[in-house]
Description:
By secondary structure, the chain is mainly beta.
Amino acid sequence: MPAGRQIILPDVISFLKELGVPIPDSGNRGGALWVGFATLSSPEAGIITVRTTTVTRDPIGRAGLAYSDVHTDTSALWETSYICGLRQDEKDRSNVAVLNAGSASDGNVTLLLSLYSGDPAQPSKPLQYLTTLGPGEFKQFDQILVSNGASIRQGFVKVERHSGTAPYFAYGVINDQSNSDGSFILPSPSSAQFAIHRLTLPVMVETSDFSSELVLSNLATVERSVRLDYVADAITSANHTASLHIRVRPNEQIIIPKFVQYLRDNWVEGVGPAGPAFAGAVFVTVEPDEIGDASGLFVNGRTSTPGGGGRFGLFYPAVPEGQTAQKTAWLYGLQQNGENRTNLALINTGETDNSTDVFKIELFDGATGSVVKTIEPVEAEARRWLQLNTILAQTPGTTQGYARISRVSGNNPFIAYAVINDGAAPGQRSGDGAFIAMERGE
């Protein structure tokens, strides 16, 4: 791979078989893949993004999820982590997977998984799984909320190291019971919110087609008081902000299926009748208590649209202050072809002041590594969200590429993300989206 190039392998199993990897011709062929880069300019210069999909019949297309590589130095886990937002009901089912992310010299790792109910009205004793994984070994627990005698409608899993020194990784997947679309749940390390008080959930929407759910998980030992500030153009109150306080009890997980409608039902100022399109970020503040920071509180979102007898959607976490981008962010794996399109979104977090951020977006052709389009200026006021739809359509002839987003003025950190949708244009194929998180630059 020459510098700056991006290669997309549509069917990696077939590609590996062509290379002579001994993979069976049929059956369950899932597992972990180790990839090594040589002669990189820096360790973070080699990036892998994966998208796993399944065929949909009505409408015809594909539905699935996207996720990034697990780098030993940056994203592998050494501490306790949590998988939040799991549910099992007539609409959804949830799986949890774990992986030994170490090399042969790291040896085995034994992990203890503890399953908890997120509903204090229906508590349950934690159901525990002890599993040992060799280097590179992967294991999935299917429908974990109702397996081995469990009967939990919604909850979370705590993953702890029991023995061994190898790094590990863990994640969850929510699958739609009707169309099998998946939503990828990243792990939440136990120290993720230490010494911070604010988080930014990238987007909550309500349109004629899409709606978003909010997931609040309090894994602390005390009740947390959370302030939610939802900022969207359609909100009519001052600063286009709708504010709400929610109290979350210890070990409680609150799932709000339709967030904007929930605000409306609770008479939150500025949220009028359904009709206009609502789209914007949610700014989460943990109010002072005996803990003193946001430790143990995890916030996630899920945006979906009806289809295939169920819903097609994607899952994404809130970004804690300090983990937002300062000057530069990268988005990889972007596509625009007969089956896919890509949207790119930006959020000015307003963490520093009320200044407007001005951005420059450079689009690279993955086949050549060259900049094929520069979009500037792109302006986002403090605490505002904006989206550029079918962004690679601005570069005719570029079917796959990546983007560098640079803040050229303004003082606020920012968040960038992309969504790859099934279908070259809205209304085509399944329309299902896969969430692509940013890679922070300088």
